Amino acid sequence: MAAAIDKPIRFGILGCADIARKVTRAIHLAPNAVLCAVGSRSIDKARRFIADNAPHISTEVKAYGSYEEVLDDAGIDAVYVPLPTSLHVRWAVAAAEKGKHLLLEKPTALCAADLDVILAACEAGGIQFMDSTMWVHHPRTAKMRELLCDPDRFGQLKSIHSVFTFCVDTDFLQNDIRVKPDLDALGVLGDEGCFLSNLTIDLTVIGTNGTLRLHDFIIPFEEGSAKFSLGTKSWFNDLVTGWSSLPSEHVVTTDLPQEACMVNEFSRLVGHVRDSGSAPEKKWPTITRKTQLVIDAVKASIDRDYEPVEIVV
Amino acid sequence: MAAAIDKPIRFGILGCADIARKVTRAIHLAPNAVLCAVGSRSIDKARRFIADNAPHISTEVKAYGSYEEVLDDAGIDAVYVPLPTSLHVRWAVAAAEKGKHLLLEKPTALCAADLDVILAACEAGGIQFMDSTMWVHHPRTAKMRELLCDPDRFGQLKSIHSVFTFCVDTDFLQNDIRVKPDLDALGVLGDEGCFLSNLTIDLTVIGTNGTLRLHDFIIPFEEGSAKFSLGTKSWFNDLVTGWSSLPSEHVVTTDLPQEACMVNEFSRLVGHVRDSGSAPEKKWPTITRKTQLVIDAVKASIDRDYEPVEIVV
Asked: Where would I find the Gfo/Idh/MocA-like oxidoreductase N-terminal domain in this sequence (chains A, B) (predicted)?
């Protein structure tokens, strides 16, 4: 793990969603970030969250009984916003207007038009924006990208197939925010593909020369190391009774779990803006907007009885 | 391996297709089968096939310069027919009419109507029919079925995803029978799903409680043992930074490669008919017909611009 830096990025969290526990620990683990405040609509809830997450929160962290107080705290550089999607425009824009850099939980917006309001506020305020998609920050993903870009080992991309399902109980189907149209109106579309099957997270990418597979691409099976397999120029033996070469396993270790890698990268960029007056890095909001355009297109396709929908970037 | 039986099933082969080499070895390995004749349109080709496959063929095997001579040989119990699909009706019916039990290479027919002509001839002649789909005979498949039927470990079936692609060269795209409409008119539909990607053979079956995966379901990576994985009631750890349980690996060993298991099972059934006067086993032609109905439906869907097509069994 890298040594802690002198002036870590000071985080506030808006809301005590379940996933905030994970990001709280990630802020704790990232060497360039520190959690300074937690805001909730109820100060008791904020205090309980802090108490429940004690191993990952310093005793100096402040509890606020509103989101506004976090945004008004001059000691906060950046906010992590895990509120329900329908509240994102209001609070993300408010954060940007208060000069807080923004790590926004996914799905980031209900539609591209909403996202554009958020991104425009960030642009106007010189705010670093990043959505809270974690797996792309795992060093495994960089290794996968390297191999997928190898014309010899992978070749030309031919198909991508991914699955994300999990099985939920009655309580989830009645009470989770993802089944509440007024909270997370995108439902399964904004998160998992399906709620009714055993937990499965698969990604298979097939090219002319290679086949890359992993079965835990969003959440790695284990924190410290993650693997994927790559078959290259696969073929059968002479009698087609077996394969002449087997897919190779690639194991990528990491000192930080992927969500801490994310916080670390976000904080690094925020540090550039805060300490060096750099412009915010546009790579991340650009990726977020592409993701949103795909979600919008899938939604439009569903509304049009699964007709193909063209995506115009 | 089981001991060779006293009166093995005596096989003839119609045609010297590449895949006949594999089945020749399978007949050699199966304890209840023996190859007695190879017929080709050219006797030189039949002789060359016998010479080239010497390690798996007894010196007493006969070479015939026509398919008819194989069918007229009273010393032959059963024929394996690896001819191009467009020739199946003619030669499969001829074999049935000559009282030869029939192991027919896949795809078995161009359409269900053609297949029904073949199956009617088998029915009329008391002929045992089996298509030459090999992987279903691997003991791994039986183990998979057992787990897929387990309501606790797998639950209710929710989705099946399978892939079979391989990458071909220019010679294949110009000369293989699968690109010749007059030979194998079903093309990729009757065999692989796609010719333009790295060799990939995946099967993922997801149920309410379980996820079963294998990456070599048609041709196992290795002959002697094959594996698959099953995740059951998979879930994350408390902070969703990893999984609380990992998929388990199941390894199934086999004395006979799957194609020899197939010959063994076919020969066992033929033996019942030949030696005990039993009726042919209807399970296998029933499965073949279901497969054909699916192929017909996919073809109809393609012809109708990918509209859904209902399958009536």
From this structure: 9-127
